[in-house]
């Protein structure tokens, strides 16, 4: 049983539209309106909980310093992450489609690739997708080139909001629609 039973579902709802980035104080303030039951006493307690317990609840956390402040990047992890309880379905992809892996940064992707490959040992192709605030891109990559392709993309697009890996070939527009996409039919 978790020390803060209302915190994991609250965080997952916060991450429903996509990854979140900010300081621990900003995160604490964003979660405060949804406070229920036992709750972390402040940003430091929240950061410690994230560091030690977030992954088991399907939340990936990347801590880094910008030189001026400590920043957190949070994202929902894959629907089948080994060692993690399966998070509630995000509503982003239909339940019958393949699970995806979500990473808040390119560095987190590089660290997570061995686990992705271990979870899909017979998969020969993956769809590499990344999102910025107003656009997204995806392409199918052979397993053996995925690491080098991701490294090249990280140099071309360093400020990515989220990176996803889908096993196999996936029509990204179908499974990961943009929230603010302009529909040409409406023009």
Could you walk me through the main structural features you see in this protein, from its secondary elements to its overall organization?
This protein is an alpha+beta fold and 187 residues long. It folds into two domains: 7-76, Arc Repressor Mutant, subunit A (Orthogonal Bundle), CATH 1.10.10; 101-175, Dna Ligase, domain 1. The chain is 30% helix and 21% strand. The protein has six helices and seven strands. The chain has helices spanning 7-14, 24-31, 43-53, 106-119, 146-156, 172-175, and strands at 20-22, 59-65, 70-76, 101-103, 125-131, 136-142, 162-167. A four-stranded antiparallel β-sheet has the order 4-7-5-6, covered by helices on one side. A three-stranded antiparallel β-sheet has the order 1-3-2. A hairpin with a 4-residue loop joins β5 and β6 (136-142). The protein is globular. Residues 79-98 and 179-187 have low confidence and may be disordered.
Tell me the series of helices and strands, N- to C-terminal: HEHHEEEHEEHEH
Radius of gyration: 17 Å
Task: Give the name of the CATH architecture of the largest domain.
Answer: 2-Layer Sandwich
Q: Which structural class should the secondary elements be placed in? A: alpha+beta
- Return residue spans where pLDDT drops below 50 for at least 5 consecutive residues: 79-98, 179-187
Profile the largest sheet: 4 strands, antiparallel
CATH fold type of the largest domain? Dna Ligase, domain 1
Brief rundown of the structure:
The chain has 187 residues and is α+β, with helices and mostly antiparallel strands. The chain has two domains: 7-76, Arc Repressor Mutant, subunit A (Orthogonal Bundle), CATH 1.10.10; 101-175, Dna Ligase, domain 1 (2-Layer Sandwich), CATH 3.30.1490. Helix content is 30%, strand content 21%.
């Amino acid at each position: 049983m978790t020390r803060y039973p209302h915190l994991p579902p609250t965080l997952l709802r916060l991450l429903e539209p996509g990854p979140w980035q900010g300081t621990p104080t900003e995160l604490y303030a964003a979660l405060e309106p949804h406070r229920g039951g036992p709750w972390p006493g402040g940003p430091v307690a929240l950061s410690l909980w994230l560091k030690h317990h977030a992954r088991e609840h399907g939340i990936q956390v990347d801590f880094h310093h910008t030189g001026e402040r400590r920043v957190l990047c949070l994202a929902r992890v894959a629907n089948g992450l080994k060692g993690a309880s399966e998070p509630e379905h995000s509503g982003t992809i239909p339940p019958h489609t393949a699970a995806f892996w979500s990473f808040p940064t390119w560095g987190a992707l590089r660290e997570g690739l061995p686990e992705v490959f271990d979870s899909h040992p017979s998969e020969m192709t993956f769809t590499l997708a990344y999102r910025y605030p107003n656009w997204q891109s995806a392409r199918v990559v052979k397993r053996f080139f995925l690491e080098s392709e991701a490294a090249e993309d990280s140099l071309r697009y360093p400020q990515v909001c989220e990176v996803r890996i889908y096993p196999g070939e996936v029509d990204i527009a179908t499974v990961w629609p943009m929230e603010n996409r302009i529909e040409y039919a409406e023009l």
